[in-house]
């Protein structure tokens, strides 16, 4: 259930299974996105239903994503922003995002995206880069790691409990965390 093997995590994502990333400090304040997150393949058209069902939340709740900063302009219009590291903005999706990553494009053709550099979060960036090398998609669906009605996960015991509640089979916990 817990692995430090990035390749195993990507293999599960490619099999359309959710993976939890659990590392570093918890997500609070300016969100440390990618430290306590449920990740999924953004290409999956049924992802919204799959993830919302797992989390026990309303069917209509939109999902978000994390994209490698160097690829963001291919998929989204940043306007006058240079980056969006805290998932604070709904960015207009370009045709490429609408076609290739439908699970993170909202009904109004925007996406609440987090841009990411390796310097900001090495392990999470490397995981996305590994997924990119296999799919040519430089992003992952990212949603908070919590069961509906419960707070975001803070410790590994609660992480294991939460995964059992949601039938998630893997926690990716990098070595250096």
In short:
The chain is α/β, with parallel strands linked by helices and 177 residues long. The protein has helices at residues 6-14, 47-55, 72-75, 95-100, 122-135, 156-166; strands at 2-3, 19-22, 36-40, 64-68, 90-92, 110-116, 139-144, 171-172.
Percent of residues in β-strands: 15-25%
Average pLDDT figure: 93
Helix-strand makeup class: alpha/beta
| Biggest beta sheet attributes | 8 strands, mixed
Number of helices: 6
**Arrangement of strands in the largest sheet:** 1-8-2-3-7-4-6-5
| Percentage of residues assigned to helices | 25-40%
Distance between the termini: 16 Å
Topology pattern, helix = H, strand = E:
EHEEHEHEHEHEHE
Low-confidence stretches are none
User: From the alpha-carbon coordinates, what is the Rg to the nearest angstrom?
Assistant: 15 Å
Task: Tell me the total number of β-strands.
Answer: 8
Global outline: globular
